[in-house]
Amino acid sequence: MPDEYVASIFDIDLKGLKKRGIEGLIIDIDNTLVSWETKTADRRVLEWFAKLERMGFRACLLSNNTKDRVVKFTETIRIPAVYRAAKPRKSAFIRAMAAIGKNPSNVAVIGDQVFTDILGGKRLGLYAVLVIPLSGREFFTTRFVRRIEKMLLDRMVREGKLVRPAVSHRKNLTG
Ligand SMILES: [Mg+2]
Prior knowledge:
CATH superfamily: HAD superfamily/HAD-like
Number of domains: 1
Shape: globular
Bound molecules: magnesium ion
Order of helices and strands: EHEHEHEHEHEHH
Number of strands: 6
Strand content: 5-15%
CATH architecture: 3-Layer(aba) Sandwich
């Protein structure tokens, strides 16, 4: 279960994370930062990363996608990245934390999938922020998992354990 559920990365309360003692961020790429088929970060995403840096956060990208995809993406955002992470396995999260010199007590994970990003982070006790996925186009297997994820999130919202965010306007901006 995520600690926070927000519409998009731009809706994350970064000052709030700071207050919680969060210094490092492990961030998913696909459908969290950009849509699945987008190869590089757009201007708004780059500005968001510049803001993270100004605020003193260390960030590492963590993706289950291929080396090619992740390396191409980091041509625009020059931060550490772990590819073929096999989230929710712990090992890649541990590598990502090592890359930014942080530990579970001061790291948050940000991602769009409950059963990879959030579960993987929670297995190590990380603070976890779930965002609404950017694009409806996904791997076949992901589409299947989304149905289970939806049931789970619907139940948590129904039981008052999670607040569903208002839908972001971002889709209208980035297509
Ligand atoms: Mg994702």
